[in-house]
Specification:
The complex is a heterodimer of chains A (118) and B (107). Chain A is mostly beta strands and 118 residues long. Chain A is 0% helix and 52% strand. Classes of the chains: A mainly beta (118), B mainly beta (107).
Chain lengths: 118, 107
Amino acid sequence: EVQLVESGGGLVKPGGSLRLSCAVSGFTFSSYVMKWVRQAPGKGLEWVSSIDTSSSIIYYADSVKGRFTISRDNARNSLYLQMNSLRAEDTAVYYCARAGLKNYIVYWGRGTLVTVSP
Amino acid sequence: DIQMTQSPSTLSASVGDRVAITCRASQSISRWLAWYQQNPGKAPKLLIYEASTLESGVPSRFSGSGSGAEFTLTISSLQPDDFATYYCQQYNSPPWTFGQGTKVEIK
């Protein structure tokens, strides 16, 4: 069974940092592009970042470029998102996701809530 | 960036109805389009990819069509589990963008 389990969310003050983790199982992690997608409360889905299998090709949404860093550890079957200089508008549920053969998303985690507030 | 626009934003329908949701891209994306269903408090679920390919395990009442810049998700006979929010997503080129969502609610 495929599982993606996010952790690391929580309440942080504006300007602060958080590191999200995603532990995966049930598939060969090193073979798939991975993504982070977020959803602000009551809003739609927003792609945040993607990383290819060897960490060679990385993309970011303009809204997080320069502040967030995606990484992966294929030996640990884990995906990460380092979030710095957090803003109120970064408040959202952050989903870890696995791509299919192309950049659609086949599997999603349950999400972890990040709240940026004084 | 490619903008994705869904219509309608909200759709009221009854069990058994045939419903259609449209997704328009701001430029051609060939057939690189996916559809997802999301229930409240849950993660999205993949329904369709490459515009019309049904994901394994998805009921056949869901279908997708279109190419270029205009796409449609059709539910042939709405079931109680189908009252949810639906999103399209283009994967022609980054940034991978989603439509704003269409909420299908009970009439």
